[in-house]
Design a protein that fits this description.
four-stranded antiparallel β-sheet, 10 helices, five-stranded parallel β-sheet, Rossmann fold, globular, binds cytidine-5'-monophosphate, alpha/beta, 45% helix, 244 residues, 9 strands
Length: 244
């Protein structure tokens, strides 16, 4: 993978706004986008289908390496079936975070994520984009927000998708998941060195986006003049070799 391809890394805890912001940044730049959480969520679902427990590290890592996953814009196909809706639940997020603590699983997903780095550029969001997956990226951002605001945002998102979850349960689930992501030994959730840290508790998506775009400009990794790259959509089929 040519390392000259620029990457904007947007990390942060659950519902900190990184999904909406990274999607908008990718659109503005005309770059591809990687929502790395989808890989962990899809792996969690594939593992559940096989009744694999989080303790079966070797089998989970093998499954991660072989995962038949296709990302078609915002749709996710796992083993040929559209699982987008199943992956959007908080249960899928919790399942993902339980297997995301396993170093061999993370290692098995590393190259898949790096395979998204294609010209003209990539906007990648997750927990360890700036620290582990693309440490050489020039532009790194870390978004946070208060737990209450994040729980409310996530609640709204889920309701928007027709899923009714109690706000109190969601608050607790998010708190637990954040804690697990933060204290794990491998690739814990933390800002990368030199990252722009933005607390979005009182910031709307537009304002956050403006500040992130300013950081993209000042870190010197602009889109080619006129944003000449292809839009970030399209299909990205992942075979075990990471080919598309
Ligand atoms: O971002 P999303 O909520 O979809 O991520 C689900 C879970 O996957 C996270 O809570 C985290 O445990 C894991 N994850 C990770 N590293 C990433 C992206 C997600 O560990 N880069």
């Amino acid at each position: 993978m040519p390392v000259s391809v620029p990457v904007v890394c947007i990390d942060g805890p659950n519902a900190s706004g990184k999904g909406a912001v990274s999607r908008a940044v990718a659109e503005r730049l005309g770059w591809r986008r990687l929502d790395s959480g989808v890989l962990y969520r899809a792996l969690g679902l594939a593992a559940a289908r096989r009744s694999l427990a989080p303790g079966e590290t070797g089998r989970l890592a093998d499954l991660a390496a072989e995962l038949d996953l296709e990302l078609r814009g915002d749709r996710v196909l796992l083993e040929g079936r559209d699982v987008t809706r199943e992956l959007a639940t908080e249960e899928a997020g919790a399942r993902a975070s339980r297997i995301a603590v396993l170093a061999p699983v993370r290692a098995a997903l590393l190259e898949r994520q790096r395979a998204f780095r294609r010209a003209p550029g990539l906007v990648a969001d997750g927990r360890d984009m700036g620290t582990v997956v693309f440490p050489d990226a020039a532009c790194k951002v870390f978004l946070t927000a208060s737990p209450e605001v994040r729980a409310r945002r996530r609640h709204n998102q889920l309701r928007h998708q027709g899923m009714d979850v109690s706000l109190a349960c969601l608050f607790e689930a998010i708190r637990e998941r954040d804690e697990r992501d933060r204290i794990r030994e491998t690739a814990p959730l933390r800002p990368a060195e030199g990252a722009l840290c933005l607390d979005t508790t009182h910031l709307g998506v537009e304002e956050t986006l403006e500040r992130v775009m300013e950081h993209v400009r000042t870190t010197g990794r602009r889109a080619p003049p006129g944003g000449s790259g292809k839009p970030g959509g399209g299909s990205h089929r992942q075979t075990p070799s990471g080919d598309t």
